[in-house]
Design a protein that fits this description.
Elements: H1 3-6, H2 11-15, H3 31-59, H4 72-104, H5 111-134, H6 148-170, H7 179-198, E1 201-203, E2 209-211, H8 215-250, H9 257-270, H10 286-312, H11 320-323, H12 325-348, H13 350-356, H14 360-390, H15 397-429, H16 442-479, H17 485-489
Antiparallel strand pairs: 1-2
Helix pairs in contact: 3-4, 3-5, 3-16, 4-5, 4-6, 4-8, 4-14, 5-6, 6-7, 7-8, 7-9, 8-12, 8-14, 9-10, 10-12, 12-14, 12-15, 14-15, 14-16, 15-16
Catalytic activity: 4 Fe(II)-[cytochrome c] + O2 + 8 H(+)(in) = 4 Fe(III)-[cytochrome c] + 2 H2O + 4 H(+)(out)
Family: Belongs to the heme-copper respiratory oxidase family.
Binding site for heme b 2; high-spin: 365
Length: 500
């Protein structure tokens, strides 16, 4: 940790840390990075398709088809867990293994056998989990619905991941540990801790178990886990991506190294305390609610500091926004990160939460972060990384532009529809007539939601179509003609990439 303060990073080394070979002439281990990258893309298609289908089920319930396995209640956790652990988890592992090798200038520790074991264990977790949820086996815990037996396998994968990553850092050839690696390491360690304590269960069959906690304590433990999965997987982990790929793609050093240090430590300390804001207006003690709200508000400071740090990295390179669609993905992701991390503390305020609690406003908030921040930063990172992994040129920058606009339009339609439906829900459920009775029945609120749900479905269709376009573009990139090392590392959109 002292490296943060003793050694200023060598930005020249970072900007040039993209060679396929280390200074010694040995090559990096890209095979495992390729495997996790492909797996992430495959699970993205599966998870997003499931999400689009359940969005359709809410708009048109007949799509349930009276088949239990594809009803909303079973497919919804398949969607959330597949995009978190399948798409997001594989993307984080792929990019972290890519970044740690280049910034530490060393091969991954552990060897092919251990790395392949980790890869197949991770894919088995997502596959077995999806099957179990569709079959009706669930812990019924948000973002942790997988049965205990599947979670034990995930814990094994997380331990292998932590050991591989820590030992790779330990044998680095660079004295400095670049800041992206600290974010990745925090994500790995925090996820393992959260996963362990949230799965303290007593099994009573192969697929079913009881939590060792009960009542309010069980709910508090679940949301300590649930919000910190958002905090350390969907935020801190992907900030590791941001701190590497934004400087690399823009060709500029990170705007403020000191700010990145403050960003890291503040997030690492503050996030652990905010899960209670999911349980306002419940049996949770008021002092816990007040503590979680206070820390939620404080989170706005480091979150916006990190967003500003990423966006201001483009100082002196703003013209690239017009010509480089990968930069567009990365910067727009940071804008959504800023928006989501402003909205989160606002929703934690008890006066606002009284309106938003149990409404679609929360769904809109989650997806502005999941689609706008997590997905866009991942897409931008993949567009940067895939040509370098396979030694080719990016097939088409024009298709990247098209993907960007499909994704952005889809996100805006989705989020605005959920804002409208959520705020409308909250207002209708809180309205009273002149006699003090509820002005609207629950059924009337459901009727109101129909149009926003259709718009949400359309937005999801836009977003998924953009992802399919990315898959085509990256496939054509992988199978295209190989280029020289120099060409690959100085790729200029529109020049070295074709303009299909």
């Amino acid at each position: 940790m002292g490296y943060f303060y003793k050694t200023k990073p060598n930005w020249g080394y970072l900007m040039n840390a993209s060679s396929a070979t280390m200074p010694s002439g040995a090559s990096y281990d890209y095979d495992i990075v390729k495997m996790f990258t492909i797996a992430s893309i495959v699970w993205a298609l599966v998870g997003m398709a499931a999400g689009l289908y359940i969005a359709g089920e809410l708009a048109w319930p007949a799509l349930n088809l009276d088949i239990a396995e594809i009803t909303f209640g079973r497919l919804r956790p398949v969607h959330t867990n597949t995009v978190i652990w399948g798409f997001g988890g594989n993307a984080l592992i792929a990019t972290s293994f890519y970044v740690v090798q280049r910034t530490c200038q060393t091969r991954l520790w552990g060897g092919k056998y251990l790395l392949n074991t980790m890869f197949w264990a991770w894919q088995a977790v997502v596959l077995i989990g999806a099957w179990a949820l569709m079959a009706g086996h669930s812990q019924s815990r948000e973002y942790a619905e997988y049965p205990l037996v599947d979670n034990i396998l995930m814990m094994i994968g997380l331990v292998i991941y932590a050991v591989v990553y820590a030992n790779t850092l330990r044998r680095r050839s660079q004295p400095h540990i670049y800041v992206a690696n600290w974010f990745y390491m925090a994500f790995i360690l925090a996820t393992a801790i959260l996963h362990f304590f949230n799965n303290l269960q007593v099994p009573y069959s192969l697929w079913q178990s009881y939590s060792v906690f009960s009542g309010t304590q069980d709910a508090m433990t679940e949301w300590w886990y649930g919000h910190n999965i958002v905090g350390f997987v969907l935020t801190v982990g992907f900030l590791g991506m941001m701190y590497y790929f934004v400087p690399k793609q823009s060709g500029r050093p990170i705007f403020s190294y000191r700010l990145s240090i403050v960003h890291f430590w503040a997030l690492s300390f503050l996030y652990m305390w905010v899960g209670g804001h999911h349980l306002e207006w419940t049996a949770l003690p008021n002092w816990i609610n007040s503590l979680s709200v206070a820390f939620s508000i404080l989170l706005l400071l480091p979150s916006w500091g990190g967003m500003i740090n990423g966006i201001m990295t483009l100082s002196g390179a703003w013209e690239k926004l017009r010509t480089d669609p990968i930069i567009l993905f990365l910067v727009t992701a940071l804008a959504f990160y800023g928006m989501a991390t402003f909205e989160g503390p606002m929703l934690a305020l008890q006066s606002v939460n009284a309106l938003s609690h149990y409404t679609d406003w929360t769904i809109g908030h989650v997806h502005s972060g999941a689609l706008g921040w997590v997905a866009l930063i991942t897409f931008g990172s993949f567009y940067h990384m895939v040509p370098r992994l396979w030694g080719t040129r990016l097939y088409s920058t024009r298709l990247v532009f098209v993907h960007f606009w499909l994704a952005t339009i889809g996100i805006v339609l989705y989020v605005v529809a959920m804002w409208v439906s959520g705020i409308g829900q909250g207002l209708m459920l809180r309205a009273f007539d002149q006699y003090g009775n509820l002005a609207y029945t629950f059924v009337e609120t459901v009727v109101f939601l129909h149009i926003p749900y259709i718009v949400r479905f359309i937005g999801g269709a836009f977003f998924l179509s953009g992802t399919i376009l990315m898959v085509y573009n990256l496939y054509k990139t992988v199978v295209s003609e190989r280029v020289t090392e120099v060409e690959r590392e100085v790729m200029i959109p529109g020049k070295l990439a074709s303009s299909h």
